[in-house]
Amino acid sequence: MNNKNKIAIFGATGSLGGCVLNAIRSNDKFGNSEVVAIAHQRRSQPDTVQTRLADYADPDSLIQALQGVNTAIYAMPINREMEKWNATLVKAADICEVERLIRFSGPLADARSSFLPLSIQGNMDDRALAREFGQAAILRTNFLMQNFVTSHRYMVRDGSLLLPACEGRISYIDLEDVGSAVLKMLEDFDSYDGQIFDVTGAVAWNNAEIAEIFSDVLRKECSYQALELAAYSGSLKEQGMDAFQTQFMVELLELADMDEFSFIGEGIYTILAQRPKSFYTFVMDNKACWQ
Ligand SMILES: NC(=O)c1ccc[n+]([C@@H]2O[C@H](COP(=O)([O-])OP(=O)(O)OC[C@H]3O[C@@H](n4cnc5c(N)ncnc54)[C@H](OP(=O)(O)O)[C@@H]3O)[C@@H](O)[C@H]2O)c1
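Above: the input record for the complex with NAP. Below: its predicted structure, written as tokens.
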């Protein structure tokens, strides 16, 4: 065990990793912590942040990236190798004597599920909690509100939300809440060790209701257009997704259609002792993105 406080954030160029990096950098309490942003390909990190490149498929790069680190935070990208990559990362954390691991998982993860996204995330959660290193905790984050800022941005701007057909509601979570939750965990990890938190918003919305919220707040017409799942699957393939990634995404949407992701998790209430940010506030806060 080492005494320093060096925090490695994998996927620092992505949504989840990026929100943790921003949260740590904007909080004075972490002024004495050394932060290492782990990127895969891109190096577009602020000059003040130490960046290391690593590839989940390359065990040596993970060991190099984790040198001297005592806390590692990560989410696995959707990939047919993701379970193997997760095992490799856990092993590298063990070799490097990482003391604490925070893993971003998916909602309803369950190794026994017959649905691919749930079973694979469940297997990875089990592996992360098997404690080959010191302590571990898991945040099962529901769909991110920020997907409307990233992948769905131009649909909102153009007033036409062409989304996979889905009748179910989803309790979207805002990344600001996710970042704040991670900071709270880092301050007192013993209180969270070994636990799994369902991180969702406080209210679940369906696609038509989301479109209405955008119309209300942005004061311009925004409507939901249903894209049949077969067409959605075809468009994913056109974008270069392989069969595994496509199946993963389509099954997620099938589950959403069955209203499986409408539940309200306790995560933010328990960790932050507050109500998660609302979708209305999220839209108000990010208005400029869709102008
Ligand atoms: N978005 C959601 O609504 C949501 C909700 C819950 C859970 N999740 C889960 O969390 C995962 C991450 O989500 P996200 O929205 O943060 O994804 P994202 O924005 O696409 O970011 C993915 C990150 O992973 C890095 N990466 C990709 N391949 C890698 C590799 N082989 N080795 C090391 N790093 C690699 C990327 O680095 P480069 O940029 O350098 O390629 C990027 O920083 C998702 O795949 C999903 O399973 C997502």
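Notes for the reader.
The pocket of NAP is lined by residues 11, 13-17, 39-42, 54-57, 75, 77-78, 104, 106, 141, 143-144, 147 (CB under 6 Å).
The beta strands are 6-10, 34-39, 50-53, 71-75, 100-105, 135-141, 160-164, 196-199, 223-227.
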